[in-house]
Each structure stands twice: as C-alpha cells, then as structure tokens.
C-alpha cells in the first residue's frame, strides 16, 4: 500500500505494521519532520525507514528531523539536496546507505547516534560546506570515499571501534589539519588522506598492519611520518608529493619500498633504508631535490627494477652504505648511478 499523508508519501507493511518514507510525485521542500508513527485506515504504523532516493535532488529541502523509530536511511536518500543545512538523527538509527547525503553542499555539521554501525560508501562525499562530523561510537569501518571532496571539513570524531579507513575516505579534505585515529585501527587503505593539504601530523596507532598506496599522497603540510612496526611494506607513493616532509622513520622490519614512495618530497634531506629491505621500486626517490644523504643499511644492494631517482638526486645525494660494501653498491644495477658513495 502507498499513501500520501501530511505531504509525505509512505509505503505500508501490514505484516510488520511499519511504514517507509518514499519518493513523492511533488519534490519535498522546506523543513520536513518525519513522525515517529503515522495512522492509515485506522491502523498505526511506526515509521522505520527512508527508502532509496526518497528525497534525492529535492533542491528546496532545508532541514529534516527524522522520527524516533527510523532505523535506516536508504541509498542516495538525500543525494543532491543542495540546500539541506540540518539533519537531526534519531537514537534508533543503525544504517546510513551509500551516497545517502552525497552532494548536500549546504550541510555544515552532523552528529550520529551511538548505534549507527554502517555508513555506506560516499555517504557524505561532496558535502562542500561540511565542517564537523561526529561519527558513531560503534562504527567499525570508515567506508571508501566517505568524505571525499569535503573541502571545508576541519574536525572528525570517530569511536574506538573503527578498524579501517577506506580508499579515498578523506581525499581532498583540504581544511583537515588534524585527526585522531583509534588505537585498534588495523588498516589505512589507498589514497585515504590524499591531498589533505592542511594535515600537519598523523599518529598511526601501533595496531596498524597495513598502509596502502598513496595513503598520504599530496599531504603538503605533513612534516613527519612514522610507519607502524606492524607494517612490513612501505607501499607505492605513501607520502609522495608531501612537499613539507622533513622526517620519515621506517622500522627494521620493512622489506620493501614501493614505486614512487618518496616522489617529490622536496624538503626531505635524509632517508634511511632499513637493513631488511630487499627491493626499492621505480622512482622511489625521484624529485627529492633536498636529499643530501641516502643511508642504506642493507648488507646486499636491494633489487631495483628501474630508475629509483632522477639525475639531480644521483648527482647530489651521498649514498652511504655499510663498511666494506662501497664496491658492491658501486657496481650494482641502478645503485651505480649515484656519483657519491661512501661507507659508514
């Protein structure tokens, strides 16, 4: 059954005695209050869900108060509501669907109740005015592209249950200067913080076991970076284009340095390659124009499939290797291109 009551359109489920708000023939506008329950044909139905695309592209919608019984918000439910400035979420809410508030360019802040356990991919992507986001305490994953392109985002609060930060989750959040990551975090996926150009520091918890390619690419204000001891691969372009980066700490268990890992880190003066490293990827040190010392602790020259630097780096940087290995490095493929090699 479907009916329009007080300017809202509902689908009714007689077996469960619940109602779902769905799309209307006339776009919703103004200030909307979704009731806890609605009466139809003498029967009361709890309003429990917002259907996929129910309010999508309702460009004159200003605010929404969700009723106390709403448990889920569907895919793209409010996508493209460009004048939506305020949303009040109920305590009963558990699920926010993919792209639910994508492109809500007037939304400045939201606070999620504790029991929200799932927020879909790109749920708040493109919310250009969003400054503050308070995620729920029980959220397990920050899904891919969750805040992609939220250029005004300054503050994000997340609970201690979060285990992963997904691909592109905070990509392009150019106003984000700091963020606190929970102690139980296990992974930071590819490009998660790409182009967060105001991010000055990042403390990765010891629990982190994976930092994927380009995770901090283009974080041009980042000054120092330390890889957690549980991560054994410094992946492709992890800190590439971090122009202010001055200090990088790689622990003794790192086995490989990926393609373009330090690409265009123009402020980096010294890099220490740990003893366990067996391979260094193409262009790993390309564009490191301030690099004075590349200290390689490896007893055997790491394998290189292609050029690891450019001519300027090969000419300027002093390659320092363990005692007695100047000859080996001087004849090793790619490493031979360094014009200055000495032992330490």
The radius of gyration computed from the alpha-carbon positions, rounded to a whole number of angstroms, is 26 Å
Task: Estimate the mean pLDDT confidence.
Answer: 97
* Name given to the CATH architecture of the largest domain: Alpha-Beta Horseshoe
Number of strands: 28
Distance between the termini: 80 Å
Shape annotation = elongated
Helicity range: under 10%
Structural class: mainly beta
CATH level 3 topology of the largest domain: Leucine-rich repeat, LRR (right-handed beta-alpha superhelix)
Architecture overview:
By secondary structure, the chain is mostly beta strands. The protein has three domains: 1-107, Ribonuclease Inhibitor (Leucine-rich repeat, LRR (right-handed beta-alpha superhelix), Alpha-Beta Horseshoe), CATH 3.80.10.10; 132-217, Ribonuclease Inhibitor (Leucine-rich repeat, LRR (right-handed beta-alpha superhelix), Alpha-Beta Horseshoe); 223-344, Ribonuclease Inhibitor (Leucine-rich repeat, LRR (right-handed beta-alpha superhelix), Alpha-Beta Horseshoe), CATH 3.80.10.10. The chain is built from two helices and 28 strands. It has helices at 311-316, 326-331, and strands at 2-5, 8-13, 18-22, 30-33, 37-40, 43-50, 61-65, 72-73, 86-88, 95-96, 109-111, 118-119, 132-134, 141-142, 155-157, 164-165, 187-188, 210-211, 224-226, 233-234, 247-249, 256-257, 270-273, 279-280, 293-296, 303-304, 318-321, 340-343. A hairpin with a 4-residue loop joins strand 2 (8-13) and strand 3. The longest helix has 6 residues, at 311-316. It starts with a strand and ends with a strand. The mean pLDDT is 97.
């Amino acid at each position: 059954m479907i009916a329009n009551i007080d300017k809202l359109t509902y689908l009714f489920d007689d077996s469960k005695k619940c109602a779902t708000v769905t799309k209307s023939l006339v776009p919703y506008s103004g200030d909307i209050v979704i009731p806890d329950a609605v009466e139809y044909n003498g029967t009361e139905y709890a309003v429990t869900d917002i259907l996929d695309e129910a309010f999508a592209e309702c460009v004159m919608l200003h605010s929404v108060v969700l009723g106390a019984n709403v448990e889920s918000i569907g895919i793209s439910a409010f996508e493209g509501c460009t004048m939506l400035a305020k949303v009040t979420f109920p305590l009963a809410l558990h699920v926010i669907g993919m792209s639910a508030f994508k492109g809500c360019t007037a939304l400045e802040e939201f606070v999620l109740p504790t029991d929200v356990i799932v927020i879909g991919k790109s749920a708040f992507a493109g919310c250009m005015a969003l400054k503050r986001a308070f995620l729920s305490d029980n959220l397990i994953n920050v899904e891919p592209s969750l805040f992609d392109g939220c250029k005004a985002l300054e503050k994000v609060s997340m609970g201690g249950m979060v285990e992963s930060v997904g691909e592109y989750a905070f990509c392009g959040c150019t106003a984000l200067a700091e963020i606190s990551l929970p102690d139980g975090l296990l992974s930071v996926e590819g490009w998660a913080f790409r182009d967060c150009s105001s991010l000055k520091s990042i403390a990765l918890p010891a629990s982190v076991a994976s930092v994927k390619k380009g995770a901090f690419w283009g974080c041009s204000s980042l000054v120092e970076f330390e890889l957690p001891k549980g991560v054994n691969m410094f992946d492709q372009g992890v800190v590439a284009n971090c122009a202010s980066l001055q200090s990088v700490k790689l622990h003794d268990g790192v086995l490989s340095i990926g393609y373009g890992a330090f690409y265009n880190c123009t402020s980096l003066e010294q890099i220490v390659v740990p003893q366990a490293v067996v391979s260094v990827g193409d262009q790993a040190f390309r564009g490191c124009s301030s690099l004075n010392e590349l200290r390689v602790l490896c007893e055997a020259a790491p394998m290189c499939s292609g050029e690891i630097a450019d001519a300027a780096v090969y000419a300027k940087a002093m390659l320092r290797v363990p005692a007695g290995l100047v000859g080996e490095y001087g004849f090793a493929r790619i490493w031979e291109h360094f014009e200055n090699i000495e032992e330490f």
